[in-house]
Design brief:
Strand order of the largest sheet: 14-13-10-11-12-15-22-20
Radius of gyration: 28 Å
Helix content: 25-40%
Distance between the termini: 74 Å
Strand content: 25-35%
Low-confidence stretches: 492-497, 593-602
Largest sheet: 8 strands, antiparallel
Number of helices: 17
Mean pLDDT: 89
Structural class: alpha+beta
Number of strands: 39
């Protein structure tokens, strides 16, 4: 690897950290770039050098070609690795790198342009006899042409943006009545995400399996595939769980789909690492149709690395340096099975709305066969300016079930305190019998979500929270007493804060709330006992070590009724406590919830945003009449659009306009009764 001694990473988060790891192993100097929102991020500290690009807005930082190239010039970088997202599939960026004499670690601008436009990609691969999904795909289709052509394609249809990926702007339409609104929404989302609102239609394959093939191609005409990945577990067309190899394909189909992927790469003279994505009918697993080619490293590349033993970032670097592939197709073997889950800052129980905030504490899982790609650390501020993915947990096993069971345990051993994540959802999904059996399709999550047994907070967990809370309070009182000893030497029962009184000591009472659940917990000292609600007091023990920071993080060993559990905890000012219970991060506050508040909110005349973001659409005029369920505004956050609807009928009084920023819980409109 003598060709490169310095490589700039034009990305952030876990992928930047992952690329730095390989660069360090190869002895190559790494350069990070960052926005103001990421000034304290882990990838910035891990790199050998770091350059500020600009403010938090991606358009003024990570998406600014000029600023990224200036950073490369300042630091003497000979090459730029784009990671995934941002500029990774931007032909103009690849061309600008070439013009600046800097190696773009990826394919040629021409290959990016052809494969980045899904319409031209379909036409190109069809010329190489690669099968494609029936549809209507040509440049410049108007809304009217899409609507008129849908009948010929056949319902259900899938609206897809020609540019970009990641499920942004994709809509499944079951019948003609919903097509016009879906096309309009898809255009807005595509324009916002990719700067290109070109759309096309495909027939939506029922019971579809999403299977992709990893390819490597050097500049000397050598192309190999590294097997396939199953990516069928998705929500809103966004991958959630990926694995290698697919439990669906047999050896003969694996060879055919692999060759089709290599042929796709050859069709554009591809150089580098890339992924060819196929749709496979679940009831016809020997059939497959080309969907698109991602001209970059994929989020899910670790599962391929774990079953092949290859470092794909290293292969990208070697190919970009002009080296030949050091192996042939016959040398590629798949060993065992690997499964990956994507950990997101989102709340599945509120429709996967983005969350984010400060990471009070993160605990990553240990164990054989476990890999974690992450940029998370204590104190990190997770912004809504970027994609909500936080980390990836990957498990390898000698077979699929061994990998799945290891991954479930790894999720249980993970804790992220500070905001809601999808960890509990991932664990429940992997434990479903159909997932365990490999009986998957892209609609599975939507079908089974309402049946997932999300855990309620148990009485034991409430008791443990109260015991830890009391231990922290006692520690704080002791600190205050020591600090004030020289100032106020008073002694006696009147200055004690432990519930002392004549006769038996009074218990400490905690009115706790977690989500919509509440519990009253009493804790007695000397001897330590605990009771939840009207239950009997049981013996207890607690040893908490929260640390000494303003936000305490540490470990607690808590015994309730003879059973002792040890788990990580984090304590915030104001009586808020986070603890890990049965593999789930539980937030417990001493504030009592108002009963019936949720029911009242369901029919509220106030329309509030459930997440921070930007208003991208106002569906009604101020003063217009609306019915229950009518759209009022749409808010975009973390690249997803969320429509806010009227919960009551009446006259709308708007509080926002397109382009306005709204906070979580911010009022966007109120609805007056029609007789007001």
């Amino acid at each position: 690897m003598a060709t490169f001694d310095t490589v700039l990473i034009a990305n952030r988060g876990e992928i930047a950290v992952r690329i730095i790891r390989t660069l360090r192993a190869l002895g190559i100097r790494s350069v990070a770039v960052y926005s103001d929102a990421d000034a304290g991020a882990r990838h910035v500290r891990l790199a050998d050098a770091a350059v500020r690009l600009g403010p938090a807005a991606a358009g003024e930082s990570y998406l600014s070609i000029d600023r990224v190239l200036d950073a490369a010039r300042q630091t003497g970088a000979q090459a730029i690795h784009p990671g995934f997202g941002f500029l990774a599939e931007n032909a103009a960026f690849a061309r600008a790198c070439a013009d600046a004499g800097i190696v773009f670690i990826g394919p040629s601008p021409e290959a990016i342009e052809v494969m980045g436009d899904k319409i031209s990609a379909k036409q190109t691969v069809e010329q190489r006899s690669v099968p494609t999904v029936p549809g209507l795909a040509r440049p410049g289709l108007s809304d009217d042409e899409l609507i008129a052509g849908a009948e010929g394609v056949g319902y259900p249809v899938l609206i897809k943006p020609s540019a970009g990926g990641g499920g942004k702007g994709m809509h499944v339409v079951e019948e003609a009545s919903g097509l016009a609104a879906a096309v309009a929404a898809a255009r807005r989302e595509a324009a916002a995400s990719f700067g290109d609102d070109t759309l096309f239609l495909e027939r939506y394959v029922t019971s579809p399996r999403h299977i992709e093939v990893q390819i490597l191609a050097d500049a000397h005409g050598n192309v190999v595939h590294l097997g396939e990945r199953e990516c069928s577990l998705q929500r809103r067309h966004q991958k959630v769980v990926e694995e290698a190899p697919s439990p669906l394909l047999d050896a003969e189909t694996r060879a055919r789909i692999g060759e089709a992927a290599c042929e796709t790469a050859r069709s554009v003279g591809y150089v580098g690492a890339g992924t060819v994505e196929f749709i496979v009918p679940g009831d016809e697993p020997d059939q497959f149709f080309f969907m698109e080619m991602n001209t970059r490293l994929q989020v899910e590349h670790p599962v391929t690395e774990m079953v092949t033993g290859l470092d794909l970032v290293e292969q990208q670097l070697r190919i970009a340096a002009g080296e030949h592939l050091a192996f042939t197709q016959d040398d590629v073997t798949l060993d065992g099975h690997a499964i990956e889950v994507r950990v997101y800052a989102e709340d599945p129980r509120t429709g996967f709305l983005p969350t984010g905030g400060r990471v009070l504490r993160v605990v990553h899982p240990p164990g054989e066969g476990i890999r974690v790609d992450t940029a998370l650390e204590d104190g990190l501020d997770v912004s809504t300016d970027y994609d909500p993915m936080l980390a990836k947990i990957i498990a390898w096993g000698p077979d699929r079930d061994a990998a799945r069971r290891r991954l479930v345990r790894a999720i249980e051993d993970t804790a992220i305190f500070g905001f809601e994540t999808n960890l509990a959802f991932l664990r429940l999904l992997l434990q479903r019998p159909d997932v365990a059996a490999g009986d998957l399709d892209t609609g599975l999550i939507a079908r089974v979500f309402d049946d997932l047994p999300f855990p309620e907070v148990s009485d034991r967990t409430f008791a443990e929270a109260a015991l830890v809370r009391q231990a922290l309070d006692a520690s704080a009182h002791a600190d205050e007493a020591r600090a004030g000893a020289s100032r106020a030497p008073a002694t006696g029962p009147w200055v004690r804060a432990d519930g002392w009184r004549l006769g038996d000591r009074a218990p400490s009472v905690y009115d706790l709330v977690s989500g919509t659940q509440t519990a009253r917990v009493r804790v007695w000292a000397d001897p330590l006992r605990v009771a939840v609600g009207d239950g009997d007091a049981v013996p207890a023990s607690v040893r908490a070590d929260p640390g000494t920071a303003s936000v305490g993080v540490g470990t607690a060993s808590v015994g309730v009724g003879g059973l002792v559990r040890t788990f990580p905890v984090a304590a915030e000012p104001g009586g808020i406590l986070w603890l890990s219970a049965d593999g789930d991060a539980v937030r417990v506050s001493e504030a009592v919830a108002e009963h019936g508040a949720d029911a009242a909110a369901d029919a509220s005349p106030t329309v509030v945003s459930p997440l921070p973001g930007t208003v991208v659409m106002v569906a009604v005029a101020d003063g217009a009449a609306v019915e229950v369920g009518d759209p009022v505004v749409a808010v975009e956050a973390m690249k997803m659009e969320h429509v806010l609807r009227a919960a009551v009928a009446g006259i709308v009084r708007l509080g926002v306009a397109v382009g306005d920023q709204v906070s979580r819980g911010g009022v966007v409109a109120t609805i007056e009764g029609e007789d007001a």
